[in-house]
C-alpha cells in the first residue's frame, strides 16, 4: 500500500478495525501498512477511540508491550439501544402479524439482515466482558440473530437441528419436551460443530415456556459445554410456567388477543442489563 | 453531536457509510450532524472515496442535485477476491471433511460468520450493478451466506423450508425432484415473505445436480418473481447432468474419493464473472 496521510489512514483503519472485532491487532500491522511511525499510528488511534466511544460504536482497548496492540470491542450507546428496543416493540405491535392459532409472523423482521445485525450488536455489547467461545441456536428462525451475535463477538455459530440429517457425520441427540405443546421432540447437533468445554451463548428468536432453550441447555451439557448466557429477540409474557430463569430479551409480548387482533408489547430486560453493566463499570 | 474536525468526521462518516450500503444519504445528513459546510463534507467524501476505491472496499457514488447525496456500494478488489477464493479452496481440500457416503462436512466454514460475510461481499460485488430486490435460500445451511449477501445488497432474505410449519400463515408449496437422489420432495415459502414481481438472487451452500436450486426457481415462478441470479459456495463437478445452467460458484469439487480420503478442489467461476464485469466497465 502506498504511503498515506493521516486522513487516508483514519478511513482505512476505521474500516479495518470494524472488520476485525475482538482481534488483537499489533501496531506494526498499521505502521507497516502505511509506512508510518508507530507514534503517528498511536495518535490516529486516539482520534478513532474518541469517536468510537463518544458515538457508542465500540471500545478501543490498547494492550501495551511487545506483544500488544489494539482491539476493537463492538458496543452500543444507551440512546441507540433504547431506540432499537423501541423499534422492535413498534414493529411487533402491528396487529397484522397475528396468525391463526395466535402465532406471530416475524419473518419480515428476521429477514432484514441489517436489522438483525443491530440486534446482534446490542447483545454483543452486553456480552463484551464475558468469556464466550461460541453461539448456538436452533434451526431455522434463530439463525439470523445467532450469526449477527457471532460476528460481533468473533466466535463460531453452531446450529442445532430438529431433523436428522446424515450429512454432518456423528451427531448428538437429546429428547426434550416442548414447554407449550408438551410434546416430546428431538434436537441434534453435529459432534464436531462444538468443542467440548466451550462457553456458549444460546440464541433464539422467540421464547414462550422455554422448552427449546431448555433443550439446548441439556444438549450443551452433553458436550461438557457451559451456558454463558441466553438471549431471545421476543419472549411471551403469557407463559404460565417458565423452564428458564436467567435470560436476555429485547421485547416482551404481554398480551395477544387473536379475536380482537391486538398485541401489547413492552421492552424486554436487555436495557436493564445494560444499565447494571454500566453501574458495575463506574 | 458536537462539532467535529475533519479527522473525527472521517472516522464517523466511514462508519456510517459502511453501516448503510446501497442507501442514498443526503449531504445535509452529514452537514447537520457535524455542523459543517457542505463543501467541507464534499471534501471529506473525496478522501473516503479515494481510500474505498483504492482498497477495494467499495464505490462511493455521488448523486448531484437537491434530492442527491452519496451512496456506498460494497465491492471487493481483484486481489482480495483471489485470496478469498483460494482460502475457500484450501479449507475445502482438508480430507478430514469427507463423511460416510461421500458427503462433505462444511459447518466449520458455514459457522464462521465473518468468513461468510466476506463471501457475501464477493457475491454482492459482482451483483452490485444488477437490480435485486430479495435474496432467497433454503433452510438450513444456505442461510448464513444468504444473509451475508442480503446485508451487503441491503435487501430482505426469504427462507424456503422443507417442512410444513403452521406458524407462518399462508404458504406456497411445490414438489421438486432432488437431482441426486431422484426423490420427490416438497419446498414451502410463506406467501408474505416475498413480494410478487421481485427480482431474486438464489443462494445455496452446495449444488450437485441442481435439483434444489431448480425447485427454488419453480417456487419463484409461483410468486411471479424473476430469477436475477444464482450463487453457490460450492458446486460438485461430478454431477452427470445439471438442471441449472447459469450460476456463480466460489469453488468446485472436481474429485472426491471416499476410500482414499482425497478431495480435489478448484476455483469456481466467480473470478471469471468478476473479470467480465471489469471489462464491461472499461
TrEMBL record, chains A, B:
**Ranges of residues in domain Phosphoribosyltransferase:** 113-250
Instruction: Name any Gene Ontology BP term.
Output: negative regulation of DNA-templated transcription
Q: Which InterPro entries match?
A: PRTase-like (IPR029057), PRTase_dom (IPR000836), Pur/Pyrimidine_PRTase (IPR050118), PuR_N (IPR015265), PurR_Bsub (IPR010078), WH-like_DNA-bd_sf (IPR036388), WH_DNA-bd_sf (IPR036390)
Query: Does Cell membrane show up as a keyword for this record?
Result: no
Question: Which SUPFAM superfamilies is this protein grouped with?
Answer: PRTase-like (SSF53271), Winged helix' DNA-binding domain (SSF46785)
- State the Gene Ontology terms under molecular function: DNA binding
In which domain of life is the source organism classified? Bacteria
Q: Where is the Bacterial purine repressor N-terminal domain?
A: 5-74
Family recorded in the similarity comment:
Belongs to the purine/pyrimidine phosphoribosyltransferase family. PurR subfamily.
Q: Which NCBIfam families match?
A: purR_Bsub
Quaternary structure note: Homodimer.
Q: What is this protein called?
A: Transcriptional regulator
Q: State the organism named in the record.
A: Halalkalibacterium halodurans
Amino acid at each position: 500500500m502506498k504511503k498515506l496521510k493521516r486522513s487516508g489512514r483514519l478511513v482505512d483503519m476505521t474500516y479495518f478495525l470494524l472488520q476485525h472485532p475482538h482481534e488483537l491487532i499489533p501496531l506494526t500491522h498499521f505502521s507497516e501498512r502505511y509506512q508510518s511511525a508507530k507514534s503517528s499510528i498511536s495518535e490516529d488511534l486516539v482520534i478513532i477511540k474518541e469517536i468510537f466511544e463518544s458515538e457508542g460504536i465500540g471500545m478501543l482497548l490498547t494492550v501495551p508491550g511487545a506483544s500488544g496492540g489494539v482491539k476493537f470491542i463492538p458496543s452500543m450507546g444507551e440512546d441507540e439501544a433504547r431506540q432499537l428496543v423501541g423499534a422492535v416493540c413498534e414493529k411487533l405491535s402491528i396487529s397484522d402479524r397475528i396468525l391463526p392459532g395466535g402465532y406471530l409472523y416475524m419473518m419480515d423482521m428476521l429477514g432484514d439482515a441489517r436489522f438483525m445485525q443491530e440486534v446482534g450488536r446490542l447483545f454483543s455489547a452486553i456480552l463484551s466482558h464475558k468469556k464466550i467461545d461460541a453461539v448456538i441456536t436452533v434451526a431455522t428462525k434463530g439463525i439470523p440473530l445467532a450469526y449477527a451475535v457471532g460476528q460481533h463477538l468473533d466466535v463460531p455459530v453452531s446450529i442445532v437441528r430438529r431433523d436428522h440429517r446424515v450429512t454432518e457425520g456423528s451427531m448428538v441427540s437429546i429428547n426434550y419436551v416442548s414447554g407449550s405443546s408438551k410434546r416430546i421432540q428431538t434436537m441434534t447437533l453435529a459432534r464436531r460443530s462444538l468443542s467440548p468445554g466451550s462457553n456458549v451463548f444460546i440464541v433464539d428468536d422467540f421464547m414462550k415456556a422455554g422448552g427449546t432453550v431448555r433443550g439446548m441447555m441439556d444438549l450443551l451439557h452433553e458436550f461438557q459445554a457451559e451456558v454463558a448466557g441466553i438471549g431471545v429477540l421476543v419472549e411471551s409474557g403469557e407463559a404460565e410456567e417458565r423452564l428458564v430463569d436467567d435470560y436476555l430479551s429485547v421485547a416482551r409480548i404481554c398480551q395477544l388477543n387473536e379475536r380482537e387482533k391486538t398485541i401489547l408489547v413492552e421492552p424486554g430486560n436487555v436495557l436493564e442489563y445494560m444499565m447494571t453493566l454500566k453501574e458495575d463499570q463506574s
